[in-house]
Structures are given as C-alpha cells and as structure tokens.
Amino acid sequence: MIIKSSDAVPAKPVTMAGANRVTMRMLLGPLEQCPTFAMRKFTVEPGGFTPHHHHDYEHEVLILSGRGEALTPDGTKPLKPGDVVYVPANEMHQFRNSGAVNFEFICLVPARVHAPCAG
Amino acid sequence: MIIKSSDAVPAKPVTMAGANRVTMRMLLGPLEQCPTFAMRKFTVEPGGFTPHHHHDYEHEVLILSGRGEALTPDGTKPLKPGDVVYVPANEMHQFRNSGAVNFEFICLVPARVHAPCAG
What we know:
By secondary structure, chain A is mainly beta. Chain A has strands at residues 2-5, 12-13, 20-28, 37-49, 59-65, 68-72, 75-79, 83-87, 94-97, 103-110. The first copy, chain A, has a single domain (8-118), classed as Jelly Rolls (Sandwich), CATH 2.60.120.
C-alpha cells in the first residue's frame, strides 16, 4: 500500500496550448504503476482555465475547493465543491475558475493517457 | 457532460460481511456508462470500518474528511484529508474511522467491478 499527502506531490505547470494558470499534481499514476486509471489534482488560479478541447478518453472529476464552471456543448455550468463531473470521450470541455481563490479538483483518466508509450 | 452533487446521490449501507457503519454513494459508474473506472464515495461513521479483505483489483483513494486509519500488511497507518492511497490488487486492506466524526473518502475501482455481469 502506498500512502502520501497530496501536498507532498510536486505541482507542475500545465503547458498544453490553451491552458492558463493551471498546475497539475500526478497523485497516483505511472510512478505507482496504476494499471487501469490515473488520479491527477488540478489547481486553477483565479482567472485561469484548462484547454477547451476534446480527446478520445473520458474524465471523471470531483470538485474539491473554490468556485468554477464547465464549458459544455450545452453552455456554461457552475461547479462547487462536492460536485462530480463525467465528461465522455470526444466531448468538448473546459474548466474555468470563476472565483477569487484557487479552484481545485481531481480528474481521473484511463492509465493509457499517461503510459510511457503515450508520449 | 453529466454534473451532479455528491449529496444528491443516495447513500446505501454497505452490507458486505466485515463492514460496520459504512455507506456508499456510487458517484460515477454504471448509470453513467463509465467505461474504465467507477468513482464511489464512502462514509464511515465513528467506530465503523470497511471489511478487512483483498480482491483481484486495485483501489485509488482520496481522503475527504475526518480521521481514519488503514490496516496494511505493514501495520496500521493514519489517514487525514488530502491523503491518497494506492492499494494494489490482492493486498489485504481495511479502512477504519479513528475519530469522532464521519470519515469520508472516495475510492475508485476498475469498471468491471460494478459491471452488470459482475453480480
């Protein structure tokens, strides 16, 4: 069993095109040889957002703190702590901080997204 | 995209042998047709615990609130909010509330665990 504090995991800037003021912590993933899915924690600073994009895998998200919103194919939806979000594969999406403090959430993806061969 | 509050998901008692004072919310799983993994939220009341058991799939856990401990092959380890836990397949484990308020965490498993054919 591996136990660690989220805070002990380094937060790395998300440099993907379209991201602004976002860092990611890889909480459980390749380092732990997680076979099926990876757990990442994102911190979006006030005014920040993730890329507005789509990809061939799903997201499962739990909002931890702050206030935010999701840009969905049906418009913008508010997000608060305790909300869960399912983004199916190939659906356009973006997460934005809509508040004055950091907006934090975990976002899980299939393990193949972070597999060494996934580049 | 599916968005819902964790609180809006019914909490069902965990009736598995060895569980005591535990409820589970299926936050994202078969209902959403999640293809790879399922997100569940567990609430362990003071004095409660999950079964001390093992199985052929892994857990990825994030502690949300309260105080608890994990019984591992190397002894008992304390758990606090923000801690993440990786339990590999086939390793004995148990989660216990060690505090005076509810101990809450999310625990993800491969989708096959909750597939209709998994019984």
